Structure formats: C-alpha cells, structure tokens
Amino acid sequence: MRAASRSAAAPSAARSLSALAQAAPRPSLKAQAQAAAPLAVQSRGMKTLDFAGSKEVVYERADWPLEKLQDYFKNDTFALLGYGSQGHGQGLNLRDNGLNVIVGVRKDGHSWKEAVADGWVPGKNLFTVEEAAEKGTILMNLLSDAAQSEQWSNLKKYCTKGKTLYFSHGFSVVYKEQTGVIPPTDIDVILCAPKGSGRTVRTQFLAGTGINSSVAVHQDVSGKAMEKTVAMGIAVGSGYIYETTFEKEVYSDLYGERGCLMGGIQGMFKAQYDVLRENGHSPSEAFNETCEEALMSLYPLVGEHGMDYMYKACSTTARRGALDWAPEFEKANKPVFERLYKSVRDGTETKRTLDFASRKTYREDYEKETDAIAAQEMWRAGHVVRGLRPGRGGKDI
Ligand SMILES: NC(=O)C1=CN([C@@H]2O[C@H](COP(=O)(O)OP(=O)(O)OC[C@H]3O[C@@H](n4cnc5c(N)ncnc54)[C@H](OP(=O)(O)O)[C@@H]3O)[C@@H](O)[C@H]2O)C=CC1
Ligand SMILES: CC(=O)[C@](C)(O)C(=O)O
Ligand SMILES: [Mg+2]
Ligand SMILES: [Mg+2]
C-alpha cells in the first residue's frame, strides 16, 4: 500500500486557498471580524489573546528569528530518536533551520532506510538509538509510543543531568503505570506536540506556514524549561504555539484522532455512503456526494473562512437543511464522544495501543486493517474519482 506521500502538494493547496480567499472576500463579515479582533498584549515574546472569551497565552514564530534560535541552541545537539512521520518532519525542519541534529534509529530498519533517503549520513548524523541518545543534549523521544515504553530501560541511562528529555505526546509520561516511563528527577522534561501529521509539519514549513503545536513542561530543573520548549516548538516548524499540560495534551489528542480527525470521519462517510448505495445510487454519485465534494469543495472553505462562510457559499436550500440537521447529528454523536473521552481517561485506549503496537507484526497488522479500508467500495470508487480529476490523466496519485 502507498505510504503517506512526502511530496504532498501542500504549497499549491495553500496557494489555491489564498487565491480563493482573494477571489471571494467576505466584506459583510469583515466588520464582525474587526469587532472580535483578539486583544493582544505582548510581553517578552508571548501574547495573551482572547479566544472567543477565554484568555490564552500564545507564542509565534516572529518572536524567534532564525539567528536568535541558532544562538539559543548553539551548544545543543538534538538527538531525534525515531524517524516516523514526526521524526521526518521535525528533523528536516530543525536541519533546515541550521541546528545541530542527529538521528537515532534501529540499524537497517525501515526508518534507517528512510533517513538515508532523506540525506542523513550513517556515522555522521545517523546513528543507532543508543549512540544518538549518548551524543545528544536534547533527547527527542519520537519513537512510536509503544516503542518508547519498550525501549525505556535502554534509554533512561542516557537521560543524565543537564540533558533535556522531549516528547511530542503526553502518552508515555502520563500513563506511567502502563508504560513504565518515569524520567529521572534531575532533567528537564518537556513536550511540543504538533497538531497535525508529521508530513504536514514538513510540507507546511516548506510552504512558509506551519502546523500549530501545544507545549508543556513536566519537569523544570533548569528554570528555563518553558522558554526552551517554546524555542523548540518554533525550531521544529510550528505555526503558533499554545500552552497545555502533559495530561491535557494526551487526553485531547487521543480523543481528537479517534473522533472527528480520523475515526469519526471514516465512520460518518461510510454510514452516509452505504445508505446512498442501499437506495440505488451509483458509486460515482455516492462518493461524490459524500467524500469528493466534502474534501475538494466544502471543507476547504470551512478551513479557510469558518463554517458560516461555507454555509453562505451554498444554496439557500442546502443551508435550510444543514441548519436543521446539524443539531440532530450533534445529539446523536454526543454520547459517543462522551464514551470515547472516558475510554481515553481511564487508560483503555492507551492499553489497547500498547498491546497492539508492541506486537512484532504491528506494521503488517496495521497494513491489513488499512488495506481493508482501501478495499471498501467507497474508497475503491474514490480511487477512480481521484484519477478523473483534471490534470491527473486518469491516474490516482
Ligand atoms: N504521526 C504524527 O503525525 C504524530 C505523532 N505524534 C507523536 O510523535 C511520536 C512519534 O510518532 P510517529 O512519528 O508517528 O512515529 P511512529 O509511531 O510511526 O513510530 C515510528 C518510529 O518508532 C520506531 N520503532 C518502533 N518500534 C520500535 C522498537 N521496538 N525499537 C526501536 N524503534 C522502534 C520505528 O523504527 P523502525 O522503522 O526501525 O521500526 C520508527 O522510527 C509519538 O509519541 C506520537 O504519538 C504527535 C503528533 C502527530
Ligand atoms: C497527526 C496527529 O496529530 C495525530 C492524529 O494525533 C497522530 O498522528 O497521533
Ligand atoms: Mg495529534
Ligand atoms: Mg496522536
């Protein structure tokens, strides 16, 4: 099966969206936007903004120009342990930002080959996990969450005084009873969690934008842990950064990905598609009316300008129905989301992940399940529909 493409065309998508924004200004909403303009109080690189009535501190790239970042980290070696989606995105962005980065992965494994293909050189800046952990001053634990737990007994000896332990998820530290990951008390333990796929951490950085990230501090031994975390967040290519805790990050992250971001969207698309098919609609019609229109026409409008804008860009007929049915869907889904949040909080979700992803065959086992999604009629139809997009010459990419 295809791996998520590293050359995804995010820059052109971003360009076409901004062209669209220019072509379709929303003058009637401009006044509203100005009225609701966030109240910015800036002090030493942080801003307190009003998010729809709640005040939150945010940090932006503008506060950390490249020279300041390079100076801040001039004595550090970032040891990227693991080279999956995040290792790839964060590592290449750090490298492009002129910082001193090395990668640590299993010799000759899948990630090793990917790292070599991305220009990391064995013996120069590509090492085994242990070698990189020994050389690094900032240990970026970007192994899979299951591997973080499995490898902890090897790794903890490298977490020596003066070093920093970095995560992109609260999983290992928060669910310590399940993972066994209890960092030594004499090091800084920090988190920067990009709120998007590592693939887009890279493509958006290249496009000059950035994925938003949350940051948190679990242990502050140096007294500078938050400042260092924010600087790292910018260095790995974030857009804006907001503060959280390890607990809040892991609860919201596990919940979101199982919900609207991934699990929920597949379930909702599938249910809608199946009902259309059961009522005699063709695969073309069912797929276009469920997925293609959502992803290629309507959802990008929501992303660019908000839900109200998308509603206003659709017919009065569509608007009437969507306004009436949205609360129905909310009501039907709310209990599922409540059950999901509880399952995250009580450790059911992390336990299931650890059990599954610790299997030797985890890659093949996941592959079988995602292949089964690709084999659903809906996504087989989608494969054909994508090939028919103008310019693709009949081929899905
Ligand atoms: N994917 C994403 O976009 C996001 C991920 N995160 C978090 O970032 C962290 C990294 O996730 P992600 O980038 O997806 O990576 P993956 O979960 O895909 O993990 C892949 C890495 O773990 C290594 N690995 C797996 N098992 C072992 C093992 N037993 N021993 C040594 N290495 C092993 C793999 O090496 P090998 O190839 O050799 O098997 C590979 O380098 C996680 O904490 C995740 O929750 C946060 C935000 C988004
Ligand atoms: C991409 C991301 O942020 C996820 C969905 O939470 C993840 O891959 O774990
Ligand atoms: Mg996430
Ligand atoms: Mg996640």
UniProtKB/TrEMBL annotation:
It comes from the Eukaryota. Residues 245-392 form the KARI C-terminal knotted domain. It catalyses: (2R,3R)-2,3-dihydroxy-3-methylpentanoate + NADP(+) = (S)-2-ethyl-2-hydroxy-3-oxobutanoate + NADPH + H(+); (2R)-2,3-dihydroxy-3-methylbutanoate + NADP(+) = (2S)-2-acetolactate + NADPH + H(+). It is found in: Mitochondrion. One of its GO terms (molecular function) is metal ion binding. Transmembrane segments: none annotated. Binds 2 magnesium ions per subunit. Keywords: Amino-acid biosynthesis, Branched-chain amino acid biosynthesis, Isomerase, Magnesium, Metal-binding, Mitochondrion, NADP, Oxidoreductase, Transit peptide. Its cofactor is Mg(2+). Its main location: mitochondrion. Mg(2+) 1 binds at residues 253, 257. SUPFAM superfamilies: 6-phosphogluconate dehydrogenase C-terminal domain-like (SSF48179), NAD(P)-binding Rossmann-fold domains (SSF51735). One of its GO terms (biological process) is isoleucine biosynthetic process. This is Ketol-acid reductoisomerase, mitochondrial. It comes from Acaromyces ingoldii.
